[in-house]
Amino acid sequence: LAAIVAGGWIIVARTRRRVRIRRDVLADAIPAAGPRAGVGVYLPGVVIALVVAAISYSQTGSYQQVRAWQQATAQTPGLLARALDPQAQPLNEEEMARLALGLRTRLQNDAGNVEGWLMLGRTGMVLGNAGTATGAYANAYRLDPKNSDAALGYAEALTRSSDPEDNRRGGELLRRLVSRDHTDIRVLSLYAFSAFEQQRFDEAVAAWEMMLKLLPAGDARRAVIERSIRLAQEK
To answer: Which of 31, 37, 132, 234 could bond to 124 as cystine, CB 3.0-4.6 Å?
Structure first.
């Protein structure tokens, strides 16, 4: 029994020694770091990553778009005042684009503002942006169908569209406007132009002749209208 016990202790001692040796080998293989590294060790890398990300973001369109939107929103009141003042310096194309962006932002929170949609429609026409102009005038006309500026602006945007279906709808709207008031020079002029463009020359001549009856004898527009009538009659 004593031999067995002694042999058991020898085995246990050797096993403990092997485990201790393995632990020592593993400890030697792992660099001694001393105390556990704190957050400060990783902080420079995090800062560098953030700086790189910020530079990349500032150079992309997203940051520039947000900055342009913020500038346009802040400048909208001043740009709008200049646009409405006939004595003020006219807006250039870049300023008109900022005004359009600012107006769209305002109208997101004030979608029932007819005058705002009309102004956006006019701005879109000046910029040659058919989508902006047509959409804005459509909203104004939907909100107030009896508003002559909204109706005429919408009709003009439709007649100047590159889509034949828009042209057809614009012509129908103009016919309704003429039947409602055949003394409105603006409506007659746009109707005549639309009819001429769509090769409805008889309708164009009829509209121009109605305009001649409304204009005074010395009006400079009479000569232009008379030339247009002759041109249409030759077609």
So the answer is: 132
